[in-house]
Amino acid sequence: MAAASLSYYCGGEWMTFPYEKEPRKPKVNVTHASPNLVKFTLTETDVSVANALRRIMLAEVPTLAIDTVNIEDNDSVIFDEFLAHRMGLLPITSHKVGDIPPDSGYVEYKQCTCFDGCPYCTAEFKLDVTNTEDKVMTVTHFDVENTGKYRRDNALPIDEVKMVPSRNPDIDEETDTRENGIIIAKLKKDQKLRFECYARKGIPKYHAKFMPVATAIYQFEPIIRTNKQMLDGLSLDERIEFVQSCPRKVFDLDIEDNVHVARKEDCIFCDECVAKAKAWGKKDMVTVKMDCGVFHFTVEAVTPEGGPRNVIDVVRAALRVLDYKMSLFLKDAYGDKIEEWLPWERPA
């Protein structure tokens, strides 16, 4: 396994987990959780599990998106195909769409037994606007409404599928439309725009319009070691120059003008500090390596209110999808039945 110990980065190890001797037991430590931003640290595993989780968040967590648009009137300067494409990219609330087959959410349209849409695979929206004023009218996602045609009988108001972001009650409607509305088209006087569209379930592997997050990235834990004796031998100007060599300001001077690591979590492994030390002939003054067993994740939502899916929900869904895919592997390889899976919601 000599090749496996080589690195793509500065000669360090790319995998420190002893995967050939002991099983992975991933642990998650959540450091920040809000509807539009989640940060957590994954430990006691290797890069294969971390990257599998990241790629599932980016490619296999399902959402709802506009799939079909029936345009009746379009007096705008935008072609019908452009309008249909714009509608497909509008974010839609998808909090209970269903992550794995055992869930009771939506099913994919191609797998549904209905003929032309039903409450279990489709949500219908409409847009019907006419500009009656002698000025340009901006049509935004706020003008698109759920018709309620495929509303489920037992659905709660909070479960309604709608466009996001929602109206901001703290500002007036005109300002909200101008600052927060996603523009669909602009109309002159007496121009109108009318169509119906249907939202259906899918995953980002099919099309980018089903993307549940704006970004999902991870960073390795930095290991920064400094030689205090060499640093103390620098003049004050050299210490300032060394501190300023880091573009992320990881190093700083303390009250006694000694160099110390102030913001380790901001390190991006650019090696500017290492290059500065080598230029002075002091290559051992500072070393920067990656701890390839610790992964700091950052997951951001598409909209400020956490749409189309709350990112806490997306992270939980990614864990459920990964667990279910492993169960499918065991079923195919050994014939094991899938009798249990991670719960949809956290147990009380």
UniProtKB/TrEMBL annotation:
Give the keywords, sorted. DNA-directed RNA polymerase, Transcription
The protein's superkingdom reads: Eukaryota
Tell me which species this is from: Prorocentrum cordatum
Q: Give a yes or no for keyword Amino-acid biosynthesis in this entry.
A: no
Q: What is the protein name for this chain? A: DNA-directed RNA polymerase RpoA/D/Rpb3-type domain-containing protein
Asked whether the keyword Transcription is assigned, the reply is: yes
InterPro entries in alphabetical order: DNA-dir_RNA_pol_insert (IPR011262), DNA-dir_RNA_pol_RpoA/D/Rpb3 (IPR011263), RBP11-like (IPR036603), RNAP_Rpo3/Rpb3/RPAC1 (IPR022842), RNApol_insert_sf (IPR036643), Rpo3/RPB3_RNA_Pol_subunit (IPR050518)
List, for all copies, the residue spans of the domain called DNA-directed RNA polymerase RpoA/D/Rpb3-type.
37-332
SUPFAM superfamilies of this UniProt entry? Insert subdomain of RNA polymerase alpha subunit, RBP11-like subunits of RNA polymerase
